[in-house]
Recover the amino acids of this structure.
């Protein structure tokens, strides 16, 4: 045991001093920030130039109201979003006007135009015509404005009291409240939940892949220069395995704590508001167990590898296994109560990720937490035993990579 | 005393070591010789408790080896290499602590050994910044820093220049004089001949010959002597124990009967002729190695 600690200390300090590790401390948060923040920000961002919008109202009912309505839409700095133009011309036929308008859109004189007409059944139809048909924000605004204008006109026609019109036109928004145990209530929205749970899972995966890769590379190095024999002539293979798992787990936890501190320092209270303290503790338990579980798999399989190339192959296979929880997490996020999600909570490979997610979004019964934690602990125990058996022989086999059958025979032997 | 008793190691389908036995006394160097793939490394690994023997036993001072035994062994593997990116002093301390030294003792001894090998100035350098020879010195230090009772050296001289070979040789001899057990595995037969008191030659996992170096050479020799002299050598043929004589005017090679010591022959002739040179003709270990291995491999 004392030797395990010596090994753990060495692994931790030596790996923590590498450039790769120090870089990952800084670069990973940047990547996470870019990945989680930028897409949302980009989607919110819009072109800040006033657009010329034509209206071809063949019914001649809506133009005035619609254009005043849309002209009121302004950018935060007060600049109007749209300049409206009436395209209707009683001298010309509709199809002729449309052709002119199309030409103007293509030339760029108009950004787009709205075509309002009645079909055969005398139903009002609305068309949005532009070179690109992707601007949902503009379309949403036009649709909303048009419907409002139309409703108001209809109400006026029917002589309905203005106060009632106002009442009916007012939209009421929905706000989601998460009910937690002990009657607590907390405000939450999908985006916040997404960020906090997903970031935890991604942190777990990144640190596992990072340190797992480091682990396999160092095993390959120790094997290729026979350092392994010196190590194994100084301590038992199990001590070595334990030392490596402990050292690297500490390294990873250290890494994550630094990241979390960075997040709190940069985002302050906002970061803390996403998760409650209690949840953080439980989440940390899953995080640590998850990490130890994956690391012991890495150690066992990694000891079989003999060259850098094989190491890379193996790491990419393992990454796929580790990505599985992320794939499952996506749908789970939207419906944490689904049976299939619950089932995944009890499969050790996906337990840490799914539980991280569920804990943060729905109240999870205590028995489920206890059972999943027990399952994880038992799985860690079993993988350590299996890995140790493979490790014991694997670390001394050089040259040819052993076949799957051989590895099985190692597990069976003694 | 280290005893290896009826050691046998079988890997799936391959018999790597077949019934090997030997003992090494305190303060002696034991040569473990044999061609590549003979089973030397497997034997070494079982002594180091890296692998378990299929059957047989390793005893140290009369007791079967236990896990504490690992702290008493030092190992210099044939293929060298340590953590390239780490600092020299850190590597030595780490491996010393793994051998059971306390952190403070580890640093103390590390500095002592670096001084002894004249490389103290590289203490804080990364290993990869050192020359190959100096890296080898570091590796040698890691094998001996914890003052092991048993030191296993696999080709200890490769990679050293003649001056450093001398340095390492002197160190090995001083370790032997202080009562260590040293097992030397090498293909440099001349070296084994000069350093080892006993040897074991193995081939294909089996013992081919073993024992005291002098005995082995005698055993594979023909009990012959070579003399150079002045005077009349014709009486040589009449000596009863001379089996074969190849005589010239003042030079002769004489094959003696096996039970006759060369010194007896020397006494008998020294009064009759004026001797200028007398030597026992013994085959070199190199010769024995080649002959025996060829014979057993055939």
């Amino acid at each position: 045991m004392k030797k395990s600690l010596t090994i753990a200390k060495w692994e931790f300090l030596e790996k923590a001093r590498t450039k790769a590790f120090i870089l990952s401390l800084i670069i990973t948060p940047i990547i996470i920030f870019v990945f989680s923040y930028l897409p949302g920000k980009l989607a919110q961002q819009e072109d800040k130039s006033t657009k010329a919008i034509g209206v071809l109202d063949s019914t001649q009912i809506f133009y005035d109201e619609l254009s005043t309505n849309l002209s009121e839409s302004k950018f935060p700095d007060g600049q109007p979003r749209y300049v409206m133009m009436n395209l209707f011309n009683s001298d010309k036929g509709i199809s002729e006007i449309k052709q002119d308008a199309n030409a103007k859109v293509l030339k760029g004189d108009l950004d787009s135009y709205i075509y309002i007409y009645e079909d055969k059944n005398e139903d009002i139809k609305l068309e949005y015509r532009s070179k690109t048909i992707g601007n949902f924000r503009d379309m949403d605004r036009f649709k909303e404005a048009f419907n409002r204008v139309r409703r108001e006109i209809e109400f006026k026609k029917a002589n309905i009291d203005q106060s009632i019109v106002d009442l009916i036109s007012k939209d009421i928004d929905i706000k989601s409240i998460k009910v937690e145990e002990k009657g607590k209530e907390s405000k939450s929205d999908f985006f916040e939940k997404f960020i906090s749970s997903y970031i935890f899972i991604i942190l777990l995966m990144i640190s596992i892949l990072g340190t797992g890769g480091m682990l396999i590379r160092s095993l390959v190095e120790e094997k290729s220069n026979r350092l392994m024999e010196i190590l194994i002539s100084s301590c038992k293979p199990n001590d070595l395995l334990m030392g490596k798992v402990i050292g690297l787990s500490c390294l990873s936890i250290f890494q994550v704590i630094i990241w979390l501190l960075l997040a709190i320092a940069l985002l302050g209270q906002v970061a803390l508001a996403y998760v409650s303290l209690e949840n953080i503790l439980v989440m940390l338990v899953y995080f640590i167990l998850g990490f130890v579980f994956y690391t012991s798999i890495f150690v066992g399989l990694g000891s079989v590898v003999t060259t850098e190339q094989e190491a890379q192959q193996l790491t990419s296979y393992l990454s796929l296994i580790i990505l599985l929880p992320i794939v499952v997490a996506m749908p789970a996020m939207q419906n944490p109560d689904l049976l299939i999600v619950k089932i995944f909570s009890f499969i050790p490979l996906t337990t840490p990720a799914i539980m991280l997610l569920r804990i943060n979004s729905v109240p999870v019964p205590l028995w489920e937490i206890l059972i999943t934690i027990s399952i994880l602990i038992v799985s860690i125990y079993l993988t350590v035993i299996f890995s140790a058996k493979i490790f014991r022989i694997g670390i001394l086999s050089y040259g040819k990579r052993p076949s799957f059958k051989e590895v099985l025979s190692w597990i069976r032997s003694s | 005393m280290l005893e290896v008793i009826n050691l046998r190691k079988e890997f799936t389908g391959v018999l790597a070591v077949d019934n090997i036995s030997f003992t090494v006394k305190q303060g002696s160097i034991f040569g473990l010789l044999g061609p590549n793939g003979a089973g030397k490394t497997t034997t070494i690994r079982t002594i180091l408790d890296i692998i378990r023997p299929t059957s047989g036993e390793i005893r140290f001072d009369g007791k079967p080896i236990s896990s504490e035994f690992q702290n008493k062994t030092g190992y210099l593997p044939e293929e060298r290499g340590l953590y390239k990116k780490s600092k020299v002093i850190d590597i030595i301390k780490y491996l010393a602590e793994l051998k059971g030294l306390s952190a403070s003792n580890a640093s103390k001894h590390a500095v002592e050994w670096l001084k002894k090998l004249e490389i103290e100035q590289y203490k804080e350098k990364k290993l990869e910044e050192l020359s190959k020879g100096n890296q080898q010195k570091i590796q040698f230090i890691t094998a001996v820093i914890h003052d092991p009772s048993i030191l296993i050296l696999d080709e200890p001289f490769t990679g050293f220049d003649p001056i450093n070979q001398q340095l390492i040789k002197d160190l090995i001899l001083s370790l032997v004089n202080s009562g260590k057990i040293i097992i030397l595995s090498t293909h440099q037969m001349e070296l084994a001949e000069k350093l080892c008191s006993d040897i074991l030659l193995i081939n294909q996992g089996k013992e081919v010959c073993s024992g005291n170096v002098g005995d082995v050479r005698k055993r594979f020799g023909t009990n012959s002597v070579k003399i150079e002299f002045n005077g009349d050598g014709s009486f040589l043929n009449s000596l009863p124990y001379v089996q074969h004589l190849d005589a010239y005017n003042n030079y002769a090679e004489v094959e003696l009967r096996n039970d006759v010591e060369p010194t007896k022959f020397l006494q008998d002739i020294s009064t009759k002729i004026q001797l200028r040179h007398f030597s026992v003709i013994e085959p070199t270990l190199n010769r024995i190695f080649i002959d025996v291995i060829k014979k057993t491999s055939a």
Remarks:
- The interface with chain A takes residues 12, 45, 48-51, 67, 70-71, 73, 75, 77-86, 90, 94-95, 97-99, 142 of chain B (CB under 8 Å).
